[in-house]
Write a structure and sequence with these properties.
By secondary structure, this protein is an alpha/beta fold. Helix content is 27%, strand content 25%. It is built from eleven helices and 19 strands. The structure holds flavin-adenine dinucleotide. InterPro entries: FAD-dep_OxRdtase (IPR006076), FAD/NAD-bd_sf (IPR036188).
Amino acid sequence: MADTADIVVVGGGVHGASTAWHLAKRGAGKIVLIEKDGIASGASGWSSAIVRMHYTLESLVKVTMYGREMYGNWSDIVGVGESGFRKTGFLVLFPEAELEHGHEVVKMQQRLGIDAQYISVDEVGEIEPRLVRDDVAAGAWEPESGHADGSTVANSFIAAARELGVDVRVGPEVLGVTSEGSKVTGVETSEGVISADTVIVEAGFRTSALLVPHGIELPITPVRHAIAVVERTPDFGDIHPVVSDRVARAYYRPERGTLALLGEHDPMRGPIDEEVEATKPPILDEEVSLMERFAHRFPGQEMASKMQGYTGVYDCSPDFQPAFGRVQALDGLFVGAGFSGHGFKLSPGIGKIMSDLVVDGSTDMIDVRPFRIERFAEDDLLLGGEGYANRSLA
Ligand SMILES: Cc1cc2nc3c(=O)[nH]c(=O)nc-3n(C[C@H](O)[C@H](O)[C@H](O)COP(=O)(O)OP(=O)(O)OC[C@H]3O[C@@H](n4cnc5c(N)ncnc54)[C@H](O)[C@@H]3O)c2cc1C
């Protein structure tokens, strides 16, 4: 019997899972999701899963607002599983050079109704007195932000999608997107062909290779990032908020119990590595550097013990912003990739947008045109303004 679907979603990370669930909620028809390795086996499973709304681009702030609402009210909205959301607050530390831009971002967030504050160094000290502040020029504070869990979110979206009838297949690999003339006809997998009028590729770094045979360009650089997990010293006290240290270019996120998770700010800092599926040993130099930065910011934490180190791969686009939506060259083809190390918090909102675009042909959440995949070939990159606009915050 012919294997057919209305929609095929390629990839079982947070983006594929969110899109499939949102489509099923809309009653979009017969949906098949294909994941070659395991749900959340890619970047989603390694994600630090920081949930903040501090973005240069107003459109992405709106996408994060949708995500923050969903993560904080998972059982009411999704109803199955959990997001692992923990409201720790999100504190940004600015160097002098970024003050103006940081202030502009906070003003824009306030205009959109977000509880965000631009704060003095003294106020930073009131929120987190343990921080060294003599090299900090000012801060931004989002009390409603925090972090969630990438694996839990992807698996919960998948479980909820299955309950709504999505056919989730783990194991087959999508070998190609098939087409006739300028129209998508389905996918060829390692277990046979599936016919479908709509194919959505959300396969992380592997997205590009599925587009190449159709002459579609999506330049993605896979950059392997180190994460260090340390146990804070027993005298540290209560957990700290998620800290985005823009002075030292690192982030510090509380992990369960007495652990802290340390990561790098610069999306391009790390080896380029196309073996994205491989689990590789920690990058020791990077971990030592992250631990030094954490100890500089939190005095006494040079005595923190290292518990674990691991790596995960960012799918970096040329402007460090995602490409999503309809692909002009092939009717029925949609993509969502190039999230450049900041796609976790965006995944609920992008899933909603993708479902709107597939079902209605448009979305009222944001103007999606600036995020079109064609911008790379057109050299119309999304730099989003001054300051740290073209660099993600992770
Ligand atoms: C170390 C690290 C820390 C991060 N921290 C944060 C953070 O704090 N906050 C934040 O917002 N973001 C963060 N990110 C980024 C975020 O995790 C990613 O942007 C997001 O998880 C990407 O999800 P995805 O679904 O697009 O990709 P992935 O999770 O990579 O999923 C793609 C899936 O597609 C499958 N696949 C690929 N090719 C095929 C094929 N041909 N056939 C079938 N299946 C296929 C893969 O097996 C994979 O499971 C971090 C990322 C990393 C690596």
